[in-house]
Write a structure and sequence with these properties.
alpha/beta; Rossmann fold; six-stranded parallel sheet; 16 helices; 39% helix; 15% strand
Amino acid sequence: MKRVLLIHPEGNSFNNPTLKCVIDLLLSHAVSIDIRYRKNCIRMPKLYGVSFLPFGVIIGKYKSLILNKLFSKKLLKICVWFEKIFIYGKYDLIIGIDREGLIEANVLHEITGTNYVFFSFEIMYENETSTAFKGMEREASKSVRYWFVQDEERATQLQKENNLDSLKKMLIPLASSGNNEIVVNRLRDRLGIPLEKKVAISIGSISSWSMTKAIIQSVLKWPDDWVLIIHERYGRTEYALKAIGIKIDELPIEKVYISNDASVMVDNMGEILAGISAGISFYNPDYKTFYTGNNLKYIGLASGKISTYLKYGIPPVMNEIGSYSDLAKQHGFGLVVEDVSEIGKLLPILLDSSWSKRARYYYEEYLDFQRFEVQVWNKLNNAC
């Protein structure tokens, strides 16, 4: 049996559509997986063939200091060497996720000789960080067997920032696999939303860059028969809302509903999204961190929330965000607005069933991971 080490410091492998599909793909080929990640509040499901190797606060701070302040490969190699001795087994392949996963995979490769591949979901830019910050990442990019990114736009950006070999790339939209399931236990019912109400939902991150506050404020101008659900994927909705200055007890309870359900599996969102007529998805780069600047400006097909809406036949309402907004206009699977104030007057348009059909069709024809899994498996298997 082959063994794979997946290094994903963020630790939300089961909330990432592509990673969940890759894990399922490996398990279907009898590959066992160890996941190395930073211990946090994210729930990790028990799956046969998957072992979890979390690291705690002390190691996390040590690695963060090395990778983000000292930029010392020698110090990181000492840490990874100890991990190899006391934690890791023998692997046929290493999968590095984003910058930290890539760099650690490269160091472990130098220690053990095991090949590694790179999956990118966040792109770091030199003009938002530093030459030293990018230096470790660029060095680690030289020896990757294959690298995976969502679309040509992001591939161009990543190739420029990391000096990656274009012949080793594969494009995979950030999306789940298969069709949505029919459910009867709906979130909207558990929240007590009347049957006659039409529901829009905002899932994912609650922050300034996702414009959550402005979206909530716009609800007061929505039609009387429309309401909004706010759903943070880790079940910390109230906490996240308070963090951006929203007072829960001041929300209009007849218009805004708070979901504190945690989404353990990103490809099992049926209960959350059943009975939903519109999905809200706004991206507004604020450049407050190196995750929320150009990484959002060139979001491409790296929006998991939009692909999830489309999977469940929910037409998204979005701002001008490049690839997805252009595709929405071209294929008619969602609406694009210039400002959140326009949401309310456009929502009734989406009740026409043709929007839902086009949303589901676009997902099935262009995004579904099933269309890419043979190529992905061939590359991963070849890299072993």
